[in-house]
Structures are given as C-alpha cells and as structure tokens.
Design a protein that fits this description.
single chain; 339 residues; alpha/beta; Rossmann fold; two-stranded antiparallel ribbon; globular; binds nicotinamide-adenine-dinucleotide
Length: 339
C-alpha cells in the first residue's frame, strides 16, 4: 500500500521517512516536496532505494491529483508546511497558500480518490487514512501554570500558527462533512539532527562554534516542551496505525525548558565536547536580542491520551537527545559530510 509523505525532505518528514523505511524494508514511499530552502535530500541518502521523490507543490491541484492516481495513494502523512514563525511575520501570504490551501488541496484529492460519496468509501479504500501533522502553537500561549490537552480551545497568535489552525479546522471539517478518514496530531517543539539552521538549537550551536554572539530573544524566559524528533515520529507512526478517525492526539514529553537554559546547557556540552582554544566558556557568548513580536511565553503538552490509548512512550532522554544533536551539528558545521 503506497504511503504518500508530504514534506518528506524537511526536518521531521525526513526522520519519519527513514524510520518508516527501516520499519518496512520491503515497502516504497512517495514523497511530495517542493524542496524549499528548508528541504534537503541528503538526509534520505541511506533510504534512497525505497523512496520516490516528486518535486512539486501541495497546492497544485493537477499535480496532487496525478500523484494520488499514479501511485494509488491510500495513506497520507502530511508534514509539508512553511514552518518558521519569523518568516510568517515577514511574509504571511506564503503561509496561507502552503499551510491552508495546500492542506485543502490534499484533502480534496483524498476525498475524490477514496470516497464514493459522503461517509461511503470506495471499495478497496476502507483502510485509507490521512494523518495531518500540526503544532501546539495553535493553542496560543500558557501562563506559568497549566498544560494543553485535546480540549484546549484554539487561540493562535502568529500568522504561522493561524494558518496551521486553519488547516486543522479544514481537516476536521472533511471528517464531519465527508467522513474522510483523518487524524490530527499537535506536537510540541521538536529537536534533533537535520533541522534547518534557522531554528533555535542549530543557531545556538553554530553561533557558539563560530564564536559569534549566541542570540536569545527577549530575556530567554520563553518555555517550550522539547520533543526528540525520533520520538515524535514513533508517535505519528502509532497514530497512523491505530489512531481513532476524527480524533486529535497531542504529542509531547513533559520536558519543559526555557530558552536561556537550553542555550546554557548546549554551551556546557560544548565546553566538554569541543572546548574553546582560549579556555573561555561558551556561555559568555550568549546575547539577548529584541523579542519576536507576539512571542508566546510558554507551551506545554499533556500527552496522556496518546500514552493511554495508543501505548506511545518517548524513549530518548533530554540529555541523550541533546548530546546527539550537538554532536551531529558540530560535525555539520565543521564541514564533515554525514547523512
Ligand atoms: N519543527 C517543529 O518543532 C514542529 C513543531 C510542531 C509542528 N510541526 C509541524 O511539523 C511539520 C513538519 O515541520 P518541519 O519542522 O519538518 O518543517 P520543515 O520546514 O523542516 O520542512 C517542511 C517541508 O515541507 C516542504 N514544503 C514547504 N512548502 C511546500 C509546498 N508548498 N509543497 C510541498 N512541499 C512543501 C519543504 O520543502 C520542507 O521539506 C509542519 O507541518 C510543522 O507545522 C513542526
């Protein structure tokens, strides 16, 4: 059965593709990815023989329809998105096109391919499934207390999170209006190898290794619930296999850290792993910069539903995940090629 993975050349998508190829070595996976600046095919080199990469835009109706029919797609895991909040502040319209129109284009193609009529699947398509990968940012910000769960009302604060919220609502509507077999996941901040350089953890590591100022927004007090990318992918796999249709699952690891602590911890790892030649500590490079407009203070997830219903558990401790990440980026930034 062909699985279509949109955005499979991006950060999380590429980890998911590799995990799926390892789990199902006899299967092939079709990736639909327009290959923006955030994409890189290098990380998929070890599984090249199991994948077909279609370079194209998820909002291209004709192309998406052709992909569904040519490969007889019956499962979709939808990662493709514009994902960087700062870029959504400078150019919101691209986020609307990809995140909202692109998601609706995929839903429509799935509906035409899989459904005879509302709530009636075409024969042979009964086990089709569309997993939509979203973010906890749709819930807005938390104060010092409380956590998000599946019943938290939506309150997006950035153009990025507003477009992801719009996509989530479209996915929901295709379930309630057409009976399309969909499941949505909302996860917390991911970290791990192969994330684009623009994101927080790669920026901290790169700046430190180059002995440049390490930029931290505001006073560094913004809190995120950090999820190792491999654990996130195993959660999506559980949802793809056994998630209940029309449901939402929040994925997080109860691992809250503020940005300044993340920066200090990475500096401490680098002090041991790659000490500065002049003997100074890396954390002397930490520099506070003007805060991002609309910067949410805190996100935190209660993952009880996916834990109890689907038996999902993260397996990577924060210490191990962060060390793996620092080592991978240190190799990358010191120009050692690895996949
Ligand atoms: N990274 C995180 O911490 C995080 C947290 C919560 C949710 N998410 C969600 O997970 C998904 C994947 O995030 P990521 O961090 O891997 O993002 P990413 O930016 O690293 O990758 C996105 C991928 O989508 C592709 N893409 C973008 N526009 C496209 C288009 N119009 N058509 C086809 N492909 C297109 C890009 O080329 C890229 O390969 C996104 O939907 C994002 O909203 C990410």
């Amino acid at each position: 059965m062909t699985i279509l993975i949109t955005g499979g050349a991006g950060f999380i998508g590429s980890h998911f593709v590799r995990q799926m190829c390892e789990t199902y070595p006899n299967d092939r996976f079709v990736i639909l990815d327009v290959m923006t600046y955030a994409a890189s095919i290098d990380y998929l080199a070890p599984v090249q023989s199991q994948i077909t990469l279609v370079r194209g835009d998820i909002s291209d109706t004709e192309l998406v329809g052709r992909v569904f029919s040519e490969w007889d797609v019956r499962r979709v895991v939808h990662f493709a998105a514009e994902s960087h909040v700062d870029n959504s502040v400078s150019d919101p319209s691209l986020f609307v096109r990809t995140n909202v129109v692109g998601t609706q284009t995929l839903l429509e193609a799935a509906r035409h391919r899989w459904m005879e009529s509302p709530f009636v699947c075409r024969a042979g398509y009964e086990s089709s499934r569309f997993v939509h990968v979203s973010t906890d940012e749709v819930f807005g910000t938390l104060g010092n207390e409380g956590v998000f769960n599946e019943d938290t009302p939506y309150a997006p604060n950035s153009p990025y999170s507003a477009t992801k919220a719009g996509a989530d609502f479209l996915v929901r509507s295709y379930f309630h209006t057409f009976g399309l077999p969909v499941v949505t996941t909302n996860c917390s901040n991911n970290y791990g190898p192969h994330q684009h350089d623009e994101k927080l953890i790669p920026t901290i590591i790169r700046s430190a290794l180059n002995e440049h100022p390490i930029p931290i927004y505001g006073t560094g007090e913004n809190i995120r619930d950090w999820l190792f990318v491999g654990d996130h992918c195993s959660g999506i796999h559980r949802v793809l296999t056994d998630g209940r249709l029309g449901q939402t699952y929040l994925i997080g690891t109860r691992n809250e850290w503020n940005n300044i602590t993340i920066a200090q911890t990475i500096c401490q790892i680098l002090d041991i792993y790659r000490p500065r030649v002049d003997g100074k500590k890396y954390d002397e490079l930490i520099t506070f910069v003007s805060d991002r407009p609309g910067h949410d203070l805190r996100y935190a997830i209660d993952p009880s539903k996916i834990e109890t219903e689907l038996g999902w558990r993260p397996v990577t401790s924060f210490a191990d995940g962060l060390r793996t990440t620092v080592e991978w980026y240190t190799d990358k930034y010191l120009y050692v090629t690895r996949s």
